[in-house]
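Q: What changes when flavin-adenine dinucleotide is included in the input?
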Amino acid sequence: MKAYDYLVVGAGLFGAVFAREAALRGKKIKVIEKRDHIAGNIYTHEVDGIQVHQYGAHIFHTSDKQIWDYVNQFATFNRYTNSPV
Ligand SMILES: Cc1cc2nc3c(=O)[nH]c(=O)nc-3n(C[C@H](O)[C@H](O)[C@H](O)COP(=O)(O)OP(=O)(O)OC[C@H]3O[C@@H](n4cnc5c(N)ncnc54)[C@H](O)[C@@H]3O)c2cc1C
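A: The predicted holo structure follows.
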C-alpha cells in the first residue's frame, strides 16, 4: 500500500492550494517545506499591528469572483488600489 498519493515540495500558494484541494478529494498528501513557515513568497507577519510582507510587497489581483470567494475563506484582505506613478 502506498503511503501517499502526492508529495508536494513547498507550501507556497501553489503547493498549499494543491494539497488542500487534493486532500478534499480524498488524496493522501505529504507537504515538505524548507522554510519555517507556510505561504512561500506571499508570507506576511505582524509587526506593531502592521502586516509586513517579508519577501516583498504582494497585491492580490483577480476579477474572478470564484477565486476571490475562495481566497477569502482563508484570509482577510486590506482594501488597496495600486496607483503607480
Ligand atoms: C517581490 C515579489 C513581489 C511579488 N508581487 C506579486 C503581486 O503583487 N501579485 C502577485 O500576484 N504575485 C506577486 N509575486 C509573485 C508571487 O509571489 C508568486 O506568483 C507566488 O507566490 C508563487 O507561489 P508558488 O507557490 O508557486 O511559489 P513560492 O511562493 O515561491 O513557494 C514555493 C515554496 O517552496 C519552498 N521550497 C522550494 N524548494 C524547496 C525544497 N527543495 N524543499 C522544500 N521546500 C522548498 C519554498 O521555501 C517556498 O515556501 C511577487 C513575487 C515576488 C518575489
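Observations recorded in class: The chain has a mean pLDDT of 94.
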